[in-house]
Every structure is written in C-alpha cells, then in structure tokens.
Amino acid sequence: MRILLADHHTEPRWALKAFLEEQPEFNLMGDAQDAQGLLLLAEKHTVDLVLLDGALTGMDIEDLITRLHALEPRPIVMVMSSDFEYSRVLLKVGADAFVSKVDQSDWLLKKLHYYAKQVKMEGGCE
What we know:
21% strand, 5 strands, 126 residues, five-stranded parallel β-sheet, alpha/beta, Rossmann fold
C-alpha cells in the first residue's frame, strides 16, 4: 500500500517514517511537515492512504481532508491525534479513520493492514 505521511512535529514524523519503512508491505511515498507540502506530494504521487496529524499546520483540517478526497484516485485519510475526544470532530469533518498517537505502534499497524486489505480488494495497490 502506498502511503503519505504528514506531521508538523519533526521527531514523531521521523519515528513514524522509520517505522513505516521497516514494513515491507507499505511503500512510503513521502512525508511532509505542513498541509501545503502534503498536498504537493499528494498531487505528485498516487497514494492509497494519507496518514496525517490532526493538528497539521497550514490549513484547516476539514479543508485539507476535502482536498485530499478530491484527488483521483481518492486516498483513504487516516488522521492521528493524541486527543481521543478530537476523533469525533475529525471523523465528522470527513476523515476515513482515526488513530490515537498514544496507542502502541501495533495498533497503528493493525489499522494499516486492515486498510491495505481493502485497497487490495479494490485493486488500488500495486
């Protein structure tokens, strides 16, 4: 599954990048530190899933999700936050999935595998 990663916090982004690059079933297409950088990458690369921080700088989260969903093919948008209560807001404004930043990495991996299966069934993965 092809993934883009975006988080305005450098160290967590690097840690997630290293974690995803260790997973042979995932192909990290790029990472960004703000909404504009993410949109540039998303327009340049065809991706199956965008994993982004719910507090990403540079654009309102609802507008960002709307712009990501307008891409063809439409990527799955999984939003991360350390504020579990914020998950309701994120899902309401269009996020396809939510993952808590305080969860263990195996929970993120489980969710990514779930969506990878869906993408594969729909013919989206290479």
